[in-house]
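pasting input
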Amino acid sequence: MSDGTLYDKVWDRHKVTELPNGQDQLFIGLHLVHEVTSPQAFGMLRERDLDVAYPERTFATTDHIAPTTEEKRKRPLEDDQAEKMLDALDTNTAENGITFFDFESGKQGITHVVAPELGLTQPGMTVACGDSHTATHGAFGSIGVGVGTSQIRDILSTGCIAAEKQDVRRIEVEGSLGEGVYAKDIILKIIQQLGVDGGVGHVYEYGGPAIENLGMEGRLAVCNMSIEGGARAGYVNPDETTYEYLEGREYVPEGEAFEELKEYWGSIASDADAEYDDVVTIDVDDMDPMVTWGINPGQVVEVSEPVPAPADFETETDREAAQKALDHMDLEPGQSMLGYDIDVAFLGTCTNGRVSDFRRAAEILEGHTVDEDVRALAVPGSETVRRQCEAEGIDETFIEAGFQWRRAGCSMCLAMNEDSLEGDEAAASSSNRNFIGRQGSKDGRTVLMSPVMVAAAAIEGEVTDVRRFYDDDQADALTADDVSEVAD
Amino acid sequence: MVDKPQHITDVSGSGVPIYGDDIDTDQILPARFMKEVTFENMADYLFYDARRDEDGEFNDHSLNRFEGANVAVVNKNFGMGSSREHAPQAMMRWGIDGIVGESYAEIFRDNCKSLGIPAATADHETVTELQEWIEDNPDGDIEIDVETETVTYGDTTVDVEIDDAMQEALVEGIWDTTSLMYSNMSKVEETVADLPYVEAE
C-alpha cells in the first residue's frame, strides 16, 4: 500500500466518508462537462428532481461534435443530431448556473486543453469528466479521472464519486530526449514497455529527470495517455514549472491567495520517502521517435525498429492480436514503418493540440510543402490556442505548407464531427488512439506519432524520421534501408 | 430505462462468447452512434462494425449467432479506451445481464456497476472452457451467483471473483450511488470547507 504519495494526500483531503459498500465517497474539486456524455446525466437528474450541488465548480465546453470549419459553426448546426446535443448543453448549463464556454465565448475547445490553459486545473485537486482523457490534468499534480454518465449524475447531484483507492506505480523516466523526440514518444515508450493493460488497478506517478525537464504541455501529453496504458489516472508532482505556468492564468488567484495556494501545492507533492506499490524505471536516452504499427497504442515501435512478427509474441491471443493488426494495417512482419504511405495528416487533439505542438510542427513545415496526395488538417485544441498561434503567425506557416487551418475541437480523433477518414485511408495522427474505426471509417488506418512526426509525414506523404528535417543533426535520422538491416 | 431489481444476487440465462483481448469501447459502440441525447437506441449499435460484413449484412460474429443471450463471456482487458457508458448501456439493452471475463478496464467496470451488471473475473483457462462450452451448448443455462462468487454451467460450478465493492453494491442493492452519497451532503460540505483551493476563491 502506498504511503506519503501525492495520490494518498489528495485522496485523504477529498475523502468525505467511507460508504457501506467499502468504497470511498470522494469530493470532486473540478467537474468538466461536454455535450456527448452529459445530456443523459442531466436527464437522470431531472427524473429525480435533483439540483446541481456545486455549479460553481462545474465548467462546460463543447468539443467532440464541434464543427471545425468557419462556415459549419453557425447555429443551428447543419447536423441535426449534433445541434440537438449542443442545444441540450445550452439548456442544461443555463438552467443549472454552470459556466459554458460556447462558440461565442472565445474560450471553447477540448475540455482537457481549456481547463489547464484557463488555470481551472490546479495542483492538489480532484478533477473528473465524462471522458477517459481526464487523466491529462494530472500534469499539475491533480488526480484526474474519467467517468461514465451515471457517475456524472453522481457528481452533478452530490459533487462526489464513489471510488476505490488504487495502487500507485512510480515510473522513473531516466535520461534525456534527443532532438526530434518529445513527450509523446515517452508515453508511447511507456505503453510499449508496460502494455495497454499494464496500469489496470494503478495510478501512475511520472517522475525522474526526463519528466522533470518537460514543460507543462509535455507533461499534459504524457498524463493524457495514462489511460492508454490502462491506468485511470497519471500525475506529475507539482514544481516550479507548474507554478510558473499557473501564475497569472484567468482562474488562478493572485497575490497573497496565490502564495497561500502555492503552500498547499507544495505540501501535497509526494514525500521524498514516500512508499509506492511498485516502481518501474524506463530509460529514454538515445530513444528514437515512436510510431504505432497496430490497432492499439501498445503496438508501437521506435522508427528504427521493424514491425514485429506474430511469432515474436508469447501467447496465442497476443499472436492473434498481432496478426489482426498486421492485416488491418496492411503490413508484413519485419517491415519498417518508414515509408508507410499516408493519405491524411492530422494535428490536434487533447494529447497534442497545444501551442507548443503547433510551434514545433511549424518549424518542420517552414519552407516545405505538404505532399500533393495528403489531406492535412491542423485543428487547435482550443480557440485560445488558435488565437495564440495566429498571433505568432504559425497559422500562415501551416496554410502556406498546404494544411487546412481549422477551428477548435476533437475533430478527427474520433470523428464525431464531419472530419473523418474515408475508406481505408491511412492517417499520420497526433491523437491518442489507433483503434479500428476510431477515426470514423472502419477500414481507416491510424498511425500515432508526435506532432513533428506528423508534419514530416505530411511533407513526405509517408512515415518519415523527422530528424531528417533538422539541419544540425541529420546523422540521427533513419531511412527504411537502415531498418531492413536491423530486420535482417 | 430498463427495469431492474434493486438487489442483484444472481443473473442467469444463456451465454455469448465475445472473443479477443483488449476489446476497446470504440468497437463495442462506435463513436458515430453516440450522437444521441439518450441511451434508448444503443442496443442497435452494439459492435456495429464487427457484426457486419462488407455489404452491411450480419456476419457470423458471436452476437449474431447467440442472440437472446444474457451472459457475455469475454477475455482480457475488456472495455479499454473511452469512458463512454454507451458501451455497457448497449450491452445491457441488447440483453446482457452479467459478464464473466479475464479482466476489465477500470472505467468500463465502474460503468457496469452503475448499471447493476455484475462483471466477474476468472483465469484464462476457466474463461476459455466456458466459451467453448457455450459454443457446444448455445441454449445451455449459465448462472452467475454474485453472493457466492461462482458461475454454474451444465454440471460444472467454478469459482470466480467479483470485486468487493461491486458485490456489496449489487447484493445489498446500493449500486445506485447517487442516493447513497446524497445522504452524506452535510459531510461533503465539511470536506469542501477544508479545501484550500475552494476557500481561496
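fyi Chain B is about 35% helix and 15% strand.
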